[in-house]
Amino acid sequence: MLARLRREYERQGKPFDALKVFLVGGRGEERFADVAAQLGTTTGALKTATHRMRRRYWEIFRDEIAQTVSDPGEIDDEIRHLLAVMGG
Question: What CA–CA distances, in Å, run from 40 to 47, 85, 88?
Fold first, then answer.
C-alpha cells in the first residue's frame, strides 16, 4: 500500500518522504512546523496535505481489502476484523 501511495505521490511531484512520517504519528505542532519549514510551506498547508495523504492511504487500504473479499458488503467487516487482530 505504501509503495502504491509513493508511486502516486512521485508521479504528481509531491513530497512523499516528508509527509509519510505523519501517516501514523508525528502530529505534534513542533513537528509540523519543522517539516513545513523544510518544504517551504505553511503549517496549515502541511496539515491539509497530511490529511489528504491519510485519506488517500485509507482509500488504497479499502481497495486492497476489497480485492480479498467476494462481496463488497464484506469490506467493512473485514477491515474491523483486521484492525481487531492487529490491536487497533
Answer: 13, 40, 34
| Residue whose entry in the numeric block shows the C-alpha cell 505523519 | 22
Orientation angle between helical segments 43-66 and 75-86, nearest 10 degrees = 110
**Please, is 53 exposed, middle or buried when counting C-beta atoms within 10 Å of its C-beta (0-12, 13-18, 19+)?**
buried
Name the percent of the chain in helix, strand, coil, to the closest 5: 75, 0, 25
User: Sign of dihedral through CA atoms 42, 46, 52, 56?
Assistant: positive
The Cα 12–Cα 5 span in angstroms is 11
Cell 504519528 locates to 25
Q: How does pLDDT run across 24-66, given as a tens digit for each residue?
A: 765 677 788 999 999 999 999 999 999 999 999 999 999 999 9
| Residue position matching grid coordinates 458488503 | 73
- Distance between alpha carbon 32 and the CA centroid of its chain, in Å? 16
